[in-house]
DNA sequence: AATGAATGAGAATTCATTCAT
DNA sequence: TATGAATGAATTCTCATTCAT
């Protein structure tokens, strides 16, 4: 149980390389490229992640756990509204580094039980964060944690075309969105709060491969 | 010129088939599938669109032009604020039908001069629409047409994970966003209005293919 | 419908090359090798035979049909016993050219409906041939066509280790076997006549892959 | 020498596991599977058997030696004809348990000097057995031990397609074959007795790997 | 001596694109 | 001009074998 030193190091190298590769090139980077970028042989990638989707899942989990940790940290702040907004800023920053995030939505990797659980955990923690903001009257009464999680991705996507030239453009859209979230003398939102995220359905019809 | 008539017809069939195929299956549908769905041979696809990216570009242009036409129509309404919101709803609806939209961001197809022009045209028209809303005090003073165009995609993406089960969930996020856009006793937005959309840069670093 | 000239030629080249390659090297020859030997590109193999098993099936069918044609021809002879033996000799000769025959037993290619039908057809025709020999008292009363078909392969396998140095050694074993088949004052054979050939069962247990 | 004890034990475990694995799954089982089934690490397999072919050879030798031991035992019986037949039944039973037997014919593993010697030893012993039967007039005068060894494999192969559903079908074909072997008022067999088994030639043409 | 991580050649298969008919 | 056959680079994944611990 010592020989693992190399293995652990390689796993770390692989995750880093894959994160970067997916972020830069999208989900279509080849496993070969990822191996190269990690400085290991192809076979090593597959030893650590038996399929490409496993690798994608591992990376998604990394991201999701990082987001949840952040949410956890912001839970301690007194000003719940400010904390929520700060969390969103932080989260969008994480996403901004990852071009793959968009491609990955609706992918089989999201079917991984582990990923699903990580999403659930994230939504739960963010719900706590959001609940406090709601109670303090900082956001509308019918905003949920899932709304916030979805907005993270959405705001990131909104600013993405500008990412190269104006890397902080998302701040503008976060401001707009957060302004829309604020409690006010407004009617209820037109569509009910989103259900638990269950991502794409594996069974045919809704997301055909159509090859 | 009988041949020309056939050719025109084929082009139309191809565009329709490709639009549907990309929408349903994402950008990874094979040219073969598209040819089949259009009822023509593979060679014919390549006669009309020398590369797959050309085809994608053509379809993006279609979408962009359709959006612009819609914006044009809404230009005639009296209530500029309502018209802007209605336009957004209409635009997001168009996007929602298109699974490829996300995949396509940052693709070389967006480098096509034609697509760039179509984007510019769209932004111009939406800027007119937005300008009127701004003047009527319906939205903040520093909101531009480009903001709106970006939000179209962003709101769509926000609701995308729910698309299968709650196809109209975007209405909720449009409401939130539009609420954030509204003129009010608020400070200026934190980031300057976005520049003209220039999408991803073809030269290396920012959007490598990384194969 | 003219462009097929090349295609037809290629299909023929492929079948020939594949037959030889499988015969010489066994079922593990790569599709690449087969393509090379046929003088076509790898992609062409897959255009004609979507999977390796399809190719194997096609080749098995060739062999089975050739066997059946032979059986058909021998059906016309007057001396039914001699005809049966001549057919066996002819069939074993066909098999002797094919090293793959053994490997292929129990393979998924034999699950192909077409192959199954070809086997059935062969057994039917050979049953006719055998029936006549039975009636003429040339072979035991409880010998069936399926016995004969099985013996074809078995006799071939018996002599196979000698194939390189004594290519006609199978004649010796055919003589022995046929002698054992002859009608005589003997008790019934110990095991009931074999059922229809249904080859290996696809469902796990009996032929696990065990990777 | 504690280590040596472990080593011997591992070798035994490996041989057992490999025998079973090859028998069940054919020669394509991975070394990994074999290691697992033996409860050792992959490296250990290679320490004992430098290549897969060495392992296969070791297993073939086991089988051959087991067959020879059986032949030896039957040598003691008085009724030489019955003993020969009983030996064949016993031998075919051993083969029937082994799905790999067919795959292995013509493999480089059979080139191993050790395997060749084991085959020779087997043939010698069976020749003794056969000689006695010949002398007692129980089988034709020109039947050799090598004939019998070849028939072992051949009869097994004949019944193999039925193995799943009728595991004792080989009894039928043994009866037929043995009937053909019996001494009688018949002419000499058409082909001279087979030479020593020299299996496939390693040098090119006759058994190319053809990759 | 045993372990199991790393290696890298190679397999089947896909697909955009080219080109002969 | 339309067709669809041919091409061959690229992809994911497997596995025998090597080697550091």
From TrEMBL, chains A, B, C, D:
DNA-binding region coordinates: 30-49
Pfam families: TetR_C_43 (PF21597), TetR_N (PF00440)
Residue span, HTH tetR-type domain: 8-67
Keyword Transcription regulation attached: yes
InterPro entries: DNA-bd_HTH_TetR-type_CS, Homeodomain-like_sf, HTH-type_TetR-like_transc_reg, HTH_TetR, Tet_transcr_reg_TetR-rel_C_sf, TetR_SbtR-like_C
Record key words, sorted: DNA-binding, Transcription, Transcription regulation
GO MF annotation terms: DNA-binding transcription factor activity; transcription cis-regulatory region binding
Location of region: Disordered: 185-211
Top-level taxon in the UniProt lineage: Bacteria
Transmembrane spans: none
Record-given protein name: TetR family transcriptional regulator
Organism listed in the record: Streptomyces humidus
